[in-house]
# Entry
Amino acid sequence: MAGTRLVQWLNILVWALVLLKTEGANVSITIVEDAVAKGAVCLDGSPPAYHWDKGFGAGINNWLVHIEGGGWCNNVTLCLNRSETRLGSSKHMDKAVAFTGILSRVQNYNPDFYNWNRIKIRYCDGASFTGDVEAVDPATNLHFRGARIWPAVIEDLLSKGMKDAKNAFLSGCSAGGLASILHCDSFRALIPSGATVKCLSDAGYFINVKDISGAQHIEEFYSQVVATHGSAKNLPSSCTSKIKPELCFFPQNVAHEIKTPIIFVNAAYDSWQIKNILVPTIVDPHGTWHNCRRNIKKCSDDQIQTMQGFRLDFLKALENTGNSSSKGLFIDSCYDHCQTELQETWLFDDSPLLAKTTIAKAVGDWYYDRRPFQKIDCPYPCNPTCHNLVTVLQEHPDL
# Structure
């Protein structure tokens, strides 16, 4: 009995040490106070913020700027609720956060970017940094100014050394992944011309498809986001000059116009899109999809068939990225959402593989031009390395 307990305690200790090593030290918040004078503020009028873990050694002049995710708000009521959280106010943000995955400072777990300047931009505007409405309703004090936050934060980073960047990499997850698509070329324009600049979108390739009831749920939602935040003028004009502005919120309508090299990391069965675009709660009143949406292994044959259809729609939308060699693709068949921020999916002993390659290896090889990477996985359940994380259903409150 004593021996068994000792083994159990040793196992707990080993896992604790692994977690400590991969989590790394917490990184303190930086509040961009000067941004307020420019009107570049969060939903509640507080200044924007970011976390910065400084580069060292050979990475001292390299900069990785990662944009936090967190959905969107599409009307005053929901934006007002959001303004009382970390997703709408720097007053409610954690003073320090752990950097893992692509932000890790541990070489073994992030070999290509561990010693870079690594920045996490906090997301507090609710529209992927596209909104800009001058008027502020005194009844709500809501500020729709995301498009001002973006350059204000970048300018602050430039003043702190990014103006001397030799390499710069813009990345983002979810709504931040969409932001990295929409702002990829503007990031290139703000960085010194001599630097190598590329972008990464993780789980940011949201597609325009009907939900299982046949309704255009996500298109209508994006239409409301664009109208509420005044986003139209800040979306790519090459797109808005041809189609409705809300359609330019979908990467499939703008990705082909991106001139800066960009890599798309996405699950073909993106769990957030399945839960909120394909099968939002409103179209499943009897909870028929409840267990399936939470755990893909509990889906019926018919539900899997519906999700296979979503995958085909996703791959068709992905064709609009174009076939340029400067575009990268890591499209696995996992049921997941945001894979670069988490150590276990970015680079760990049992990380997901595509063409026998981890996400970290594929992204690093692509960034440094060691080899191109444009791979699309076979259909579920063909990939045994997928984690297919079981989740507690927490629908985004805005959808």
